[in-house]
Structure formats: structure tokens, C-alpha cells
Write a structure and sequence with these properties.
Layout (H helix, E strand, L loop, with lengths): L3 H7 L3 H7 L18 H8 L22 H10 L2 H14 L3 H15 L1 H7 L1 H5 L3 H9 L4 H30 L6 H18 L1 H26 L14 H16 L18 H29 L4 H7 L5 H9 L4 H12 L1 H19 L8 H19 L3 H30 L22 H14 L13 H4 L3 H23 L4
Helix pairs in contact: 2-12, 4-12, 4-14, 4-18, 5-13, 5-14, 6-13, 6-14, 7-14, 9-20, 10-11, 10-16, 10-17, 10-18, 10-19, 10-20, 11-18, 11-19, 12-17, 13-20, 15-16, 16-17, 18-19, 20-21, 20-23, 21-23
Length: 504
């Protein structure tokens, strides 16, 4: 693996190059909508705002060789208080002790991070956004239901992050600032980063993690001794372990549906192994470390009065972190602000991917500049965050468990299509066909495999709102069942589809 510093000196910086050009493919919608020639639209391009939406990047325009940037994109996205709060679910919701929580966190993240990390490697080869690549399995219209589910998942993540960031900001002001005001501040900062697009987004993710690292190191320095005061837990059961594992998998596997959105500008000749390991480490390092810290902190909180008061009865994760940093005085409050802002890296990237999902759900919107949908995504998440702010744990547990099911089935279909039917050949993804329905699969096989797999997934579920006959005995194994079952179903269904569909 080459030296990142060397890469930075010799590479083409596509962030600057692509944002500054407005001709031949860089401004992907230029000339299609007359109003784009208006002065304000041209000014946005000059200021570095990316307008490219779902239009694939031609081979010769994939020139970015600063490949290490993808590590920082995923690292900063996950090095935040949402990862910390997800770890707290093991003890709080499922009654697991520290050892069992950490073992589940480690093992299932090692497994679940592999799929999105692998799909990152497809971006440089195809030059396509993740949902556009998926049309070559699900079809032009068949991908729409999957994109809708992905939109719901991405908006859900933004809602959770806005709530956490707002909580943390409010806790710094000793609750003189309402959670609502904090949520609005977090949402607007994230909107600005996402609105600017690829250039600003990559720059921000490269620097956003550092103050968060300082904050967590200080929290460990001033309060680490209290982490050994965890209360003993009941012995773990298969039910609780597998149900918590479903939540852990749901947290990370959904990144598969946005993976190549951030790698499609990379030079196509880059080693897939290199992109895979940059991405995999970008997931695994922050997620495992912060989820384990969250589990340890929430278990220790009842034995530390200030932590317990900060956490409260409503599960205020921001208040818990502020209490952990309170021995540092004013500097601790400053670091709590930094932690609250850590969610902006996740929200901004999620808003970025939301833009393309809108354009896939309604293909006619491909003519609308990408940045418009950053505003739409914020307008959706902001009021829902305010309404759901005081039901955080119920929302988080139900949401993370549910979205893992469809993402697991989705990943199986993509892998089978690529490796079994296309023999791993990226040349079979003809870029000119990306928006031609007749040149793409019908999508009946992909949708059929995903829908039929739920006949077994549903009995294997074990949620607060539904317990299947299998899941109530084994724990929630819907995620584990979805992947192999969708793959098994897809093979015969796709063969049948190929038999009857004639593509010219």
C-alpha cells in the first residue's frame, strides 16, 4: 500500500477539477434544463458546488487518485455519538453485560462491514452511483421500491443523528437551550456541507474526526476509571445475543446501498483490494471502538451520580457524554460541543446519497441539480427529529433492526448477479444503458427474491412490535436468514427472467 502523503502530491484532485469545470460531462445536467444557465446556477458551479446527480462518470473523467479519502469518509461518518449510542443498546435494551455486548459488537461488525466495503470497490470500475449500479440487477423500475426503502433508512439515520446532536448541544447549556434549537443547528450545518457536494464533503470528512478523537480521549482520561464499575448483568441468552446482533448488523450493512456514491470519481485502475481495506477499516475501527465504549459507559452510569443524572430516565446520551467530560470544566463543555457536531459528518454524507435516491425513485428528477435534494432531505428530517426527540431509544432499536432485513437481501442479489451471472465482468455494465429500461433487466427476479425471502424472514423476527414463531425461540435471526435465502431464490428466478427477456 503506497504512502498517502505521496499520493496527495502526485494525484489529480478531482474535487477541485470536477467542481470547476462546467463542460463535457462534469456539469452532468448542463444544457438539459434552460434555467441552469441563469447567473445564480453558474455562480454555484464556480463556487465549487457539485451538480452531478445520477449521470455516470465517463471513464476518462474518473481521475481522482487520492484513494485514501474513502477511509476518512467512512471513518468520520461513524466516529460520532450515534455509534456510541448504538453500543448502549446492548445493556439498556437487551440486558447484556459488558463482555457479551463487546463480543457481539466485534464479531457481527467484522462480518457485516465486509459487504459495504466490497461494494465500494465497484464505484471506480463502473463510474456509477450505488442505486444506478443496482439497476443492472433490479431493473429501471424494479429498483424503485429498493430506493424508497433506502430513502426511508437514510432519512431515519438523519433523524437519529439530529436528535443526538441536539441533545448534546442542549446539555452544554444546562438545558437553557431546548433540544429543538440544537436539532435545527445540527441540521443546517449538515445541509451546507451536503449542498456543496463532493469537494467540500471530502475535505470536511478528512478533518472532522480529529476533535472528536480528542473529546473521547479526554473523556477516557478524566472518567475512564469509572468504566470498571459496571454492574453485573444476567447471563446472556441466545435470544438476547442474536437480537442485539440484528441491531448491530442493521447499523452498518445499510451502508451497502450508498457505497459507490463516494468512489465513482476514482481512477478505474485502482486496486480493488486497496479500496476494500480503506473502506473496511473506515467502518470497523470507529464503529467497534465507540460501540464498546458506549456499552461500558452506560453500564457504569448507575454507579457514578453525575453520569446517572446526565443520562437521566429518558436516555439522554448527550447528557451522559457531557457528564463524562464535566471534570474538564469549560474545556469539557467545548469538547461536548465538538461531540455534538460529530454527527454532521454522518448527516452530510447521508444527505448526499439521499439526493440520488430521489432521482432514482422519480427518474425525471435526474434533470434537477443534485443539491436541490439536500434541501428536500433536510426539510423531511428536521420536523420528524423534533417530534421524535423524546422517544429516542424506542425509535433507534426498532429502526436499526428493521432496515437490516432488506439491506441484507439487497446485497445478496447484487453479489449473485455480479459473480454468477456476469462472471465478475464490469464491462458487462454498459454505461450507456443506465437509463434505458429496455436494455436493463426487468427486475422481476430481484424483486421476487427479496419479497419471497420475507416469507421466512418474518417468522424469524423478534421485535418489540412483532415476534415471529421462530424468532421468539431463537432470537432475531432475520438478518442472518435474509442474505442466503434471497441469494438462493435469485438464481432460479434470474435464469427464468433471462429465458423470457430478450435484450437487443
Amino acid at each position: 500500500m503506497s504512502d498517502p502523503l505521496h499520493d496527495e502530491k502526485v494525484s489529480v484532485d478531482v474535487e477541485k477539477d470536477s467542481a470547476s469545470r462546467t463542460d463535457s460531462g462534469t456539469s452532468s445536467i448542463q444544457g438539459k434544463a434552460p434555467w441552469l444557465s441563469l447567473p445564480w446556477a453558474r455562480a454555484l458551479l464556480r463556487w465549487g458546488v457539485e451538480d452531478r446527480g445520477t449521470v455516470p462518470v465517463p471513464y476518462d473523467d474518473r481521475t481522482d487518485t487520492q484513494f485514501y479519502k474513502i477511509f476518512f469518509v467512512w471513518f468520520s461518518m461513524n466516529f460520532n455519538i450515534l455509534s456510541f449510542s448504538t453500543g448502549t443498546l446492548g445493556p439498556i435494551v437487551f440486558g447484556l453485560g459488558l463482555r457479551d455486548s463487546c463480543l457481539v459488537i466485534l464479531f457481527f461488525n467484522l462480518l457485516a462491514c465486509a459487504l459495504p466495503a466490497y461494494l465500494n470497490t465497484w464505484g471506480p470500475r463502473t463510474g456509477m452511483r450505488q442505486m444506478i449500479q443496482s439497476r443492472y440487477s433490479f431493473g429501471y423500475y424494479g429498483i424503485i421500491p429498493a430506493a424508497i426503502l433506502n430513502l426511508i433508512g437514510l432519512c431515519g439515520f438523519n433523524i437519529l443523528n439530529c436528535i443526538l446532536g441536539g441533545q448534546a448541544l442542549a446539555s452544554v447549556s444546562n438545558d437553557n437551550m431546548s433540544w429543538t434549537v440544537g436539532i435545527v443547528i445540527i441540521a443546517l450545518l449538515s445541509l451546507f456541507i451536503s449542498f456543496m457536494g463532493y469537494k467540500v464533503l471530502n475535505w470536511y470528512e478528512r478533518v472532522a474526526w480529529f476533535p472528536v478523537l480528542i473529546a473521547f480521549l479526554v473523556a477516557l482520561g478524566v472518567g475512564g476509571k469509572n468504566l470498571f464499575n459496571a454492574q453485573p448483568a444476567e447471563p446472556a441468552t441466545a435470544d438476547t445475543i442474536l437480537s442485539f446482533a440484528s441491531v448491530i448488523a442493521g447499523f452498518v450493512i445499510t451502508f451497502a446501498a450508498m457505497a459507490s456514491d463516494f468512489t465513482m470519481y476514482y481512477e478505474p485502475t485502482v486496486s480493488s483490494h486497496r479500496i476494500f481495506w480503506y473502506s473496511y477499516l473506515g467502518y470497523i475501527v470507529p464503529i467497534v471502538s465507540l460501540e464498546c465504549l458506549g456499552a461500558a459507559a452506560v453500564l457504569a452510569a448507575p454507579n457514578v451520580p453525575s453520569w446517572n443524572a446526565g443520562y437521566g430516565t429518558s436516555g439522554n446520551v448527550g447528557g451522559l457524554l457531557e457528564a463524562m467530560l464535566s471534570p474538564a470544566g469549560g474545556f469539557g463543555k467545548f469538547l461536548t460541543v465538538m461531540l455534538s457536531l460529530s454527527v454532521t459528518g454522518n448527516i452530510a454524507c447521508t444527505l448526499y446519497s439521499i439526493c440520488f435516491n430521489f432521482q432514482v425513485v422519480v427518474p425525471a428528477l435526474a434533470k434537477v441539480p443534485r443539491y436541490v435534494f439536500s434541501i428536500v432531505g433536510t426539510a423531511i428530517a428536521l420536523p420528524l427529529s423534533i417530534v421524535g426527540a423524546h422517544k429516542f431509544y424506542v425509535t433507534l432499536t426498532d429502526f436499526l433492526s428493521l432496515i437490516g432485513y432488506w439491506a441484507s437481501a439487497y446485497g445478496a442479489v447484487l453479489l449473485l448477479e455480479h459473480h454468477y451471472f456476469r462472471k465478475g465482468d464490469f464491462n458487462s455494465y454498459e454505461q450507456a444503458d443506465w437509463n434505458v429500461p429496455g436494455r436493463l433487466p426487468w427486475g422481476a427476479a430481484a424483486l421476487g427474491a427479496c419479497v419471497l425471502s420475507f416469507a421466512v424472514i418474518i417468522p424469524c423476527m423478534n421485535q418489540v412490535w412483532f415476534q415471529g414463531p421462530i424468532g421468539i425461540t431463537t432470537g432475531d435471526i432475520g438478518f442472518e436468514v435474509a442474505f442466503p435465502l434471497a441469494g438462493i431464490l435469485y438464481i432460479p428466478l434470474r435464469k427464468l427472467e433471462l429465458k423470457y427477456q430478450k435484450i437487443n
